[in-house]
Amino acid sequence: MKNISKTRIAYILYILLITLFGYYARHWWVHNIPTKQVFDFETYQEIATNIFLHKGHSLLGEPIAFQGMGYPMLLGYVYRWMGSNDIMIAKNLNVMLSTLTLIISFFIFARLTNKLWVLAAAYTIVAILPNYIAYNNVIGTEVFSAFLFSVLIFLQLYPFDKKIHYPLLGLFIGITALTKPFFMAYPVVAAVALWLREKDMKKTAIYFAALFAVMILVIAPWTYRNYQKFGRFIPVSYNSGYVFYLNNNENNSTGGWMPIKDMYATEEFRKQVDEILEHGQRSEKLAHELDPLFKAEAKKWIAENPGKFLKLGFLRLKGTFFSGAWDIDSWTMNELREKQQWWDKIEFERNKNLFRGFSDMVIHLMSSFGLAYVFFNVKPALLCLFNKKTLLGNHLIIPTVNIGFFLAIYFIFEGQARYNFPLLFLLAISAVLCIERIHRGFAGTNSPQI
């Protein structure tokens, strides 16, 4: 008993220490590593600043709903509360949210495994993961969306009185959808997870209906605002068609985003786009009229070119999960080279490349073992879906259903390295569970019942 007690105490102390280290690493990064906010990150800061200045959710003096409003709205009101739009306020907010995600992930992992070494290994990865440390420097949705996603998983794993639990989960799904619009489909994901776990059709139907209804109530005010501003039904944002077509057209060879000027377009379609953009005088982020045009063209191209679409979808998944961590260098530390003073140029490049190499290796290993774990579980999940007598455990359901959801979205729409960010904590536990399963197989132990 004394040995068990000492082991438990040592384990608790280790978790506390790695949590403190994770927080310190995040805090140190934002205060010591300089970066310039570019592209979408610059836009988020400008929108949040306009909210801070009581100019509404706007860009360049016009209303905007190009992306989800959740993050810039949160940041704008935090700026108001603090009385300043200093970018360090946003970074410190990220540190707080990232640390909360770290702590929530511990409780998620505790529901997915009863093996202390698996839990500790996955938690350590999340605490020291370069992406989770570095992205606190960026004024973007990454940290906030990862936090919201972790709350969604947590609420599914720790149910309580359904009169409170269902509305609360629906509320957070709504907030997440306002941040990442594709989460409007998440009530289906949550319902599938519940069905695999309990096989109670009535409960699953009520669960889905409650989550969907509350989510609609949450996003409805923003949808009404969009109707007032743009004169048509836009639930959250109007960039889905834009993203859909730029990533799926005849001139796309990478599966990723491309400039409008480089996309394939017939003469008639190009003329329509040019007129909407006022021949380059109007920002595409403000051109909500492009959305239905692009969406129709994307559907048409995919229907005519299913093979090419499948190739681009594969390239998108590769770009999201197997491109390493080049995004850390580009978005979270892009001013470091200019401002570094304590190393000479060669030494600086050597150290930066070493950091990049380590980060690349971690991402590739997590993606390889994490996705392998999901693929191992696809067959039992499909069998369970249609067999009322078979139940699955959370250690199979949560990673498989949720990672599968992201894979489907990225396969269809867009993929790039930073899009793996919300999934990284699930990939961490999935990777360690995969290694544990492989080790169990080599050791010749019997697999536990699912």
From TrEMBL:
Alphabetical list of InterPro entries matching this protein: LipidA_mod_glycosyltrf_83
Molecular functions (GO terms): pentosyltransferase activity
Taxonomic placement: Bacteria, Bacillati, Bacillota, Clostridia, Peptostreptococcales
UniProt keyword Glycosyltransferase, yes or no: yes
GO annotation, cellular component aspect: plasma membrane
GO BP terms in the entry: lipopolysaccharide biosynthetic process
Membrane topology qualifier: Multi-pass membrane protein
Source organism: Geosporobacter subterraneus DSM 17957
Main location: membrane
Domain of life the protein comes from: Bacteria
Subcellular location: Cell membrane
Transmembrane segments: 9-25, 93-110, 116-135, 142-160, 166-196, 205-224, 361-378, 390-413, 419-435
Name recorded for this polypeptide: Dolichyl-phosphate-mannose-protein mannosyltransferase
Keywords: Cell membrane, Glycosyltransferase, Membrane, Transferase, Transmembrane, Transmembrane helix
Matches recorded under PANTHER family: MANNOSYLTRANSFERASE YKCB-RELATED (PTHR33908), MEMBRANE PROTEIN (PTHR33908:SF11)
